[in-house]
Amino acid sequence: MDPKDPMERLLAERACERLIIDFVHRLDLGEPSSVAELFTEDGVWQWPEDGRLVKGRDALRAYFGSRPADRLSRRTMSNVLVTVVSPDAAEAVSYFTTYRVDGYDGGMVPAGPPVQVGHYEDTFHRADGAWLLASRTLHLPFGGATPRANPPLT
């Protein structure tokens, strides 16, 4: 991959953008533990301000798989900016907003304010033609406790 070639750079940027979106889709709509497959074998997820550091696919699978089964969440990703830095490395910054409740048992719940607003800083590595997350760092300037779901609207 030649990062100076506009088409190759565009394809690399799109592959990395796809990982960013696939990550939140798996958390919100899929099997949360499966986000581990989007990382390199030694991939890292961290939240420095909270002291959380999760290393390696097995640890990532366990960490994200431990989310409460009754958690309903939806994330909105925006302002995704991927920069290809070499043929096999890229970086990205993206903003996110998280709406989330625990205790969800179906139906529609009243909308409340977002629980989190922040950004991710990501690094990507390409191996055998596939781009994967090497690290994902959470920065959370706006955050609060996850509320319990109110009774569904009728």
Automatic annotation (TrEMBL):
InterPro entries named among the record's database cross-references: NTF2-like_dom_sf (IPR032710), SnoaL-like (IPR037401)
Highest taxon of the lineage: Bacteria
Pfam families per the UniProt record, alphabetical: SnoaL_4
Residue ranges of every copy of the SnoaL-like domain listed in the record: 8-137
Listed Gene3D superfamilies: 3.10.450.50
Protein name: Nuclear transport factor 2 family protein
Species name: Streptomyces coeruleorubidus
